[in-house]
Sequence to fold (97 residues):
Amino acid sequence: MRLEMNVPVSGLDLASLIEGEQGLFLCQNRGQNYLTVAKAGHSIAFGPTPIGKPILEQVAVSSGPEPWFVTKISNATELAEFRGSFGKDWRETRENR
Fold:
């Protein structure tokens, strides 16, 4: 399956959802957000790495595995490409206020 940018998909197996893809993905499971990088030949090259506030899972009777919700957010596959000048521009704008 070829994932489109900013179009979420869901399934029980994260690796199979992004198999054959390249890029940066926002992945969500049980209320927690993760960043994952996929590269050619590797369904998961980096991650899933939790981002945002950690979700402390409540121990409860589970009705089964929770699905992953995956959204492709970039075609870039190197961490330097994600950082780029976004942080620099944001800091400069903030400092010039």
